[in-house]
Amino acid sequence: MGFGGGYAMLSMIQFEVVEKHGWMTMSEFADVVALSQMTPGPISINCATYVGYQVGGILGSLLASFSIVLPSLILLYFVLRFLFKNKENFIIKNTLKNMKPFIAGLIFAAAMLMMNSANFPDVGLGENNISIIICAVSFVCVFFFKVNPMILIAMSGVAGIVFF
To answer: What's the whole-model pTM score?
Structure first.
């Protein structure tokens, strides 16, 4: 069980797969991480699924995927049961209400971490800044016009192919 999201779990997966059991080399694991980033879904689940497949075939991939999700599902079940049972409790109501700015801050911090030269290679003076334009237009479309994010992802992909 790990905290910190998918990227935080990668080091735990890497320790088990490369160092402890020797199922893959570090180079092979780096390729798995790159593939996991490119495929849709949480990176830790994608990585575990691929490693499970490499080690145990289809059954291994199913077992690895299930195993990485199970602790979170169990914890979520009990937390939600507790919250729904006590949803009218003053302390719980205020705690959840006061968590909203912190959650927004965490999401904003994650967004800022993703704004780097790997994701925005054309940013700067004298550059065409297409990636910034795609990002800004996507934000406006989702935030103000409530456009379906899946449509914007597809359109951004096409724009990326055309411009890059």
So the answer is: 0.53
